[in-house]
Design a protein that fits this description.
The protein is an all-alpha fold. The chain contains three helices and no strands. Helix 1 crosses helix 2 and helix 2 packs across helix 3. The two termini are 29 Å apart.
């Protein structure tokens, strides 16, 4: 299994905040997989935007613009 950047306990907390009464480890793992996939995509787009602007540094505005493609952010 691939190493994760996000902790499983954080996924449990997010699901609890969303109103879940009980949470399986499988659902927490799946949420972690989905969130990491989305985050990687947004990060990649943000890096591309910074490069397009002639910068090596990724700024908050790059991440915000990249996340706009998600719709709900």
């Amino acid at each position: 299994m691939k190493s994760s950047e996000l902790g499983l306990s954080a996924m449990h907390r997010i699901l609890k905040k969303a109103g879940a009464g009980r949470i399986s480890d499988e659902s927490a793992n799946e949420l972690r997989r989905v969130i990491e996939g989305v985050a990687e995509s947004v990060a990649r787009d943000a890096v591309d935007m910074a490069a397009h602007a002639g910068r090596k540094t990724v700024k908050g505005e790059d991440v915000r613009m990249a996340s706009k493609s998600l719709g709900k952010v």
